[in-house]
Amino acid sequence: MKSNMKTALLLRSLFEAYYRENDIPTPPHFSKREFGFMLWDREGMIRHKTFYSRTEFLTFLRKNVPKNAYRSAAYYLDPEAQNMEGKGWVGADLIFDIDADHLTTPCKEIHDRWICMECGTSGIGKKPARCLNCKSTVINEISWICDQCLNFAKDEVFKLLDFLFDDFGISEKEVKVVYSGHRGYHVHVDNEAVRELSSDERREIVDYISGTGIKVENLGLIEVSAGGRRFIIGPDLTSEGWGKRLVKSIIKVFSSPDLDKVLIEAGIPKRKIDILLVNREKIVTALSSVPSKWDILQGIGISIWKNIALAAIKKIAAQVDEPVSVDIHRLIRLEYSLHGSTGFRVTPISVTDLERFDPFKDAIIFKGEKEVIFKEYCPEFRIGDEVFGPYQKGQKVELPLSAVVFTLAKAVAELL
Description:
Layout: H1 3-21, E1 35-38, E2 46-49, H2 54-64, E3 68-72, E4 74-76, H3 84-87, E5 89-92, E6 94-99, H4 108-111, E7 113-116, E8 122-124, E9 139-142, H5 147-166, E10 175-179, E11 184-189, H6 192-195, H7 199-210, E12 222-226, E13 229-233, H8 241-254, H9 259-265, H10 270-278, H11 280-288, H12 302-316, H13 322-326, E14 331-333, E15 347-349, H14 359-362, E16 369-374, E17 381-383, E18 386-388, E19 396-400, H15 401-409, E20 413-415
Helix pairs in contact: 1-2, 8-11, 8-12
């Protein structure tokens, strides 16, 4: 039996055991939702499924054993209709997707790899447009996950939650955070006020939380004339929405040990940076007062403050995948299903538990040990409290079953 067939059979059998031994919860209002599945033995996705009883739902999972399982954010009158017009859309939860793939994380240059499928040339980091050796465009990417990139994603979730709770008045009980089973998190908002929002209205929400199109002049940071002189005014800690956020972020920036780095990235000239660094405590005090005092340093004009403000906005804006939130027919990972690229569980998390949630512990399912041989270089990774690798191509290793499943699903190893 070919090794890749043995790999697929093992993974399917493990997934089958999981679905057989666990009563996977149905999502709220499940009979009004569309479900989609990717199976081990066929290409593409089975869509337009729905279930009218919990028994029917569990029977399907246990009989078909999906490699990946999804359900709609939307509610329909007829979820099984084969086209969107016929489904009868009646509303949708607001979904945010925060994925490490869309974040700039330094660890990608360490653990992500690419391989040319024509000549076998490989490299580390983001794949090139063409192979550096044979110029082919047929290049396979191996996207890895580690503590660093998943912590970056979690930080973005906390930023998003801050916007939802403080600026949109969403309550904690209306929000569900779900670890995707791979490189990020989904945030579900189940609130009557958002269900009927159009795609354009959802895009406006995404633009707001991501800081897209924000003009600092509209937040009140401007230069005015009075009494024969020009001076700078701006928002303070009593301002609403982004005005207050801007002040808090600038205060945080000037209280940070990385202030000089932030100012350099903001394009502030060296001589101006020196003035700002010397007066950092004075600036924090001035902006913390009500009203804030912006015009306190000679030589630091409105253009400098605007650049600082834009850098501060970038730091506190939440980075989310816009198409997921805007698409009112979107399918999203089914909670408690298994992710076919890792073998990790798609895991709901309460907001209060998010800080201590550890994907490499809390989403791990499989127990036992098996031996594998690595067919590609495998970066270092962690399962539970144990760190594995890196492993070289051709290396044979006995690993815990969760580590075996992870490396098999990532296609860097095969069963012996």
